[in-house]
Amino acid sequence: MFTGLIEDIGTVKNISGSKVEIETKLDGIAKGNSISVNGVCLTVVFVNKGCFVADYSPVTDRITTLSKLKQNSRVNLERAIELSSRLGGHIVSGHVDGIAEIKEIKNLRQFFRIVCSCGENISAYCVSRGSVAVDGISLTLSSILVSGFEIFIIPETFNNTILQFKKKGDEINIETDIIAKYVEKFTNKKTNNISLEILKENGFV
Q1: E-assigned strand segments in 5-86
Q2: Phi, psi for 66 (deg, rounded to 5)
Q3: Which of helix, strand or coil describes residue 145?
Q4: Can you tell me the distance from the alpha carbon of 74 to that of 3, in angstroms, rounded to the nearest whole number?
Q5: Is this prediction's pTM over 0.85?
Q6: What is the CATH number of domain 8-79?
Q7: Are 24 and 51 in contact (CB under 8 A)?
Q8: Cα distances (angstroms) measured from residue 16 to each of 20, 21, 111, 154
Q9: Which letter does DSSP use for residue 202 in this model?
Q10: What residue range is the signal peptide (predicted)?
Q11: CA torsion sign, 173 to 19 to 28 to 73?
């Protein structure tokens, strides 16, 4: 699990097949560790001299932007949280729901405004003032649009993540709030089991 607070901007040294090698200033990374790469939870399979190697599956390749990475690409990195850590962002699993496209980036001096378009698989779980992970960054949705959403970002976050390198038309990994998905699942389950007999037993009929 992660918090969505980016710890380092890493650099892709090599990407081939289902393996990616990333250079980072982060220490304490060991084989078997989970690490968030642009919001995607990957497992470290090799560590050597400021670099780590991770594998990713065909599903990850299909539903995230990892396949678009190339040598020297910059990536957001976050190590998995420890039980003693403060949860400064929000609960992020590293299981990306899909990809959104940046439609607009505007510098408004005290903050940056970014407008994104996305599919129903993402927008269904978006609520105004709700949480979302954008390339692994914990952010708050300022408003929900017809075919996407709008976010405002403070300079501290913008300048210390790969958002500073993004431009209109770029794609980003999106993970919606996990709580919303669980609420939907449990609500649908209970709704599907409602019958006339249950309503009578509980005094509704």
Answers
A1: 8-16, 19-23, 34-37, 40-48, 51-55, 74-79
A2: -60, -35
A3: strand
A4: 20
A5: yes
A6: 2.40.30.20
A7: yes
A8: 6, 9, 37, 35
A9: T
A10: none
A11: negative
Distance CA 65, CA 57 (A): 13
What is the number of residues in the chain? 205
Distance CA 64, CA 66 (A): 6
* Type of residue found at 20: V
Over range 147-160, report the average pLDDT: 96
**Cα–Cα distance measured from residue 199 to residue 5, given in angstroms and rounded to the nearest whole number:** 46
Local structure of 190: helix, strand or coil: helix
What's the token pair of residue 52? Answer: 């780590």
Q: Write down the CATH number for the domain with range 98-178.
A: 2.40.30.20
- The predicted-structure confidence for 78-116, as pLDDT tens digits, reads as follows 999 987 777 788 889 999 999 999 999 999 989 999 999
Site of tokens 């300079």: 155
164-187 pLDDT, tens per residue? 999 999 999 999 988 878 777 777
| CATH 2.40.30.20 domain extents, the chain | 8-79, 98-178
